[in-house]
Amino acid sequence: IEGEKINKNIVTLTRFLTEEQVKHKEATGDFTLLCHALQFSFKSIAYYIRRATLVNLTGLAGSSNTTGDEQKKLDVISNDLFIEAMRSSGKCALLVSEEEEDVIYFKDAKNARYAVACDPIDGSSNLDAGVSVGTIFAIHKLADDSTGCKEDILKPGTELIAAGFTMYGASAQLVITMKGGSVNGFTLDQALGEFILTHPNMTIPKKRAIYSVNEGNSLYWEDNVKAYFNSLKEGQEDAGGKPYSARYIGSMVADAYRTLLYGGIFAYPADKKSPKGKLRILYECAPMAMVFENAGGQALDSKMNRMLEVVPQHIHDKAGIFMGSYDEVEKIGNQISAGV
Ligand code: AHM
Ligand code: MG
């Protein structure tokens, strides 16, 4: 019978989170509620991105964010949606967003124990062309005696309790990982309005001859970085004598998602033009590094330190990043650290 082929034992994100909560005896349910608010913001952002061209949401908003980038209308809307989702959850004490200069404190959330960092729309230069963008999130727990302060979020990635991203592509893909846990991928079923577990226990291939970097910056790269990327194009012994393939979307979430599934490396190195790198530690580098490490890969900064151990001094601090398959990052470590 046709009906027999249909999977009736579907794991939604809600079910997944509830089952995870049961595994942790000390859990209060607060984290689960925070994640419900997160997933609602992803669904709303996905909805507005899909409709952007139809309802005049493409183009600039006429303002610029803290870093001086011109804001797109969707940057502004997504940031507002994310902030409201966190505020209304009652579980978020403070929020750092790429679009906000300062930390946002939700003082009304009296019993909130979480601090969240987010990039509401990462890769927004791709928006008007309909190319994949994403939302990145990172969740810290407040210190026991804290009611919410900057120090609760200015922490290294090793202290994250959960992190992940949603990619708005052909479908919306949510990837989430928790401290010491596996990496799980969910696909938004538009008809059901639910994220469905489609990629359980994701692991990144150990190696793959694909590199993903903006080579337009190579004029500014340090010599050791130049030498490393040039070596990939020269035909590698361990890639059957063939050169690596290049893939670069210019949306970290989309480049990272592909790298997670296919393997290879993604990099945004610090260079002479941007000595501290371009990508932000709290809401770009650290959460991605957590996903990659929990999937069996690695992530380093431009000084070849473990990305998760980098401690930001300020909420919008940046770092260079190299992340991907375990063996590929190992190779970078060996080739580049010689010149660090
Ligand atoms: P954004 O958060 O302002 O969109 O910038 C971050 C994006 C990343 O998604 C991507 O990896 C990188 O910037 C691309 O930068 P470039 O255009 O310099 O290659
Ligand atoms: Mg970004």
What fraction of the residues are assigned to beta strands by DSSP?
A: 15-25%
- Spatial strand order of the main sheet: 4-3-5-6-7-8-9-10
Order of helices and strands: HHEEHEEEEEEEEEHEHEEHEEEH
User: Count of helical segments?
Assistant: 7
What is the first-to-last residue Cα distance? 63 Å
* Percent of residues in helices: 25-40%
Question: Which structural category do the helix and sheet elements fall into?
Answer: alpha+beta
Mean pLDDT over all positions: 93
Number of strands: 17
Largest beta-sheet characterization = 8 strands, mixed
Q: Over the alpha carbons, how many angstroms does the gyration radius reach?
A: 20 Å
Weakly predicted, low-confidence segments: none
Anisotropy-based shape: globular
Name the ligand types. Answer: 2,5-anhydro-1,6-di-O-phosphono-D-mannitol, magnesium ion
Protein name: Fructose-1,6-bisphosphatase
Subcellular location: Peroxisome
Family: Belongs to the thiolase-like superfamily. Thiolase family. Belongs to the FBPase class 1 family.
